[in-house]
Each structure stands twice: as C-alpha cells, then as structure tokens.
Design a protein that fits this description.
Elements lengths: L1 H12 L7 H5 L4 H19 L4 H7 L2 H11 L12 H10 L2 H12 L1
Helix pairs in contact: 1-5, 3-4, 3-5, 4-7, 5-6
Length: about 110
C-alpha cells in the first residue's frame, strides 16, 4: 500500500494529473491497485498455507511496487535529487516486468 501511495505522491509532485493519459503511461492507477490486491491475497494464503507457491508468488509482487515508485521518482519536476536518478532507473528496470516474470518462472518450475 505504501508503494502505491508513494507512486501517486511522486507523480503528483512531478505535475502529472493522477487520472490522465500521462498517469496511465506511468502505470497508475491500475497496476498499483492490482499489486495491492495480489499482495493482500498472497499474504492471506501464505499465513494459512506457508508452503503454497502461488501465495508466495502473489506476495512477491510487492517488488513491482518498488519498481513503480522508482520509475515515478525519475523525470522532469521530480522531488528526488538528480544524482539518484541512475539508481532509481536501475531499480525500476530490475523490479518491473522482469521481476514479475522471473518470480513466475521460479515458482512454476
């Protein structure tokens, strides 16, 4: 939930209207809603069945939220200092779609 709120705050700080085509280009609000839903469902499954692979897969989608926050922190008008942009971009690349697909591949084998 914190990642979804942080992404919205960073987009708003950059001057991106939250319900616009520019926000959709930044994967807001659909992906954060899906991430929070998946994480909640995964947490519910894992607390009852600790060895359940799908529960862990859903829970690990929080990494996607970290990538979205890092991506939202890079760009014109960002409140994050420019020297952190390289690290933020690297984090966004690591924890974006490749993270989700890597988790899926690992759990499905």
């Amino acid at each position: 939930m914190a990642c979804a709120v942080a992404q919205g705050w960073l987009l708003r700080a950059r001057g991106v209207p939250l319900f616009s085509a520019a926000a959709v280009d930044e994967a807001f609000p659909v992906v954060p809603v899906a991430m929070v839903s998946c994480s909640g469902i995964g947490a519910a499954i894992v607390t009852r069945l600790p060895g359940h692979r799908i529960g862990w897969l859903l829970l690990l989608q929080v990494g996607t939220g970290v990538g979205l926050v890092a991506l939202a922190s890079v760009g014109p008008g960002s409140p994050i200092p420019h020297r952190g942009a390289g690290w933020a971009t690297l984090t966004a690349k690591i924890f974006g779609v490749p993270w989700a697909l890597g988790c899926w591949r690992w759990f499905s084998s």
